[in-house]
Amino acid sequence: MGFLKSLFGKKTKKEDGPISQKQIELVQNSFALVAPIAEQAAGIFYNKLFELDPSLKPLFTSDISEQGKKLMSMLAAAVNGLNNLTTLVPVVQDLGKRHVSYHVEEKHYDTVGEALLFTLKAGLGDEWTEDVEEAWTTVYVVLATTMKEAAATVEVVE
Ligand code: HEM
């Protein structure tokens, strides 16, 4: 059983899980505000990411604006999928496994998380509250942990 499922499975009541129903709503509603400015958001994200760790640049070989669109649409799918974990978990696990072939390592997930939170904060302005920050942090940690856990099962052939 994956991290996401096991965490959610621990408690019988949904609101007692690591991501409460309220947090799911905060994340979904705040993402909806950023979605219309997805392209700018992607730009902010990559600028911040490469500022935090310039060594990540060479990992991104395809067109960065295409890459930004993929990242935002995947995030949208994940955010909307929080209500339907049975479907979301294998999708996120597969994504994590593919990231091994992009030379993504465990330690990179923290940097990406920091860049993502920075981007959301910039995009949301006054709508960025402590509760929203906490909800996004929780969701990112759960997604990243699910990806890393799946990635760890992949045999790397170099
Ligand atoms: C919640 C976390 C993440 C999400 C939702 C996400 C999403 C995506 C998506 C949708 C793609 C397109 C390709 C595919 O679907 O396989 C992709 C590719 C990629 N991601 Fe991520 N990613 C995440 C974390 C990371 C992290 C931590 C890194 C580390 C730097 C990273 C680096 C890359 C790279 C290098 C590619 C391939 C780029 C290329 O081919 O030019 N991602 N990611």
UniProtKB/TrEMBL annotation:
Globin domain location: 18-152
Domain of life: Bacteria
Keywords: Heme, Iron, Metal-binding, Oxygen transport, Plasmid, Receptor, Transport
Entries under Pfam families matching the protein: Globin (PF00042)
Family: Belongs to the globin family.
The protein, known as: Hemin receptor
Naturally occurring in which organism (per UniProt): Flammeovirga kamogawensis
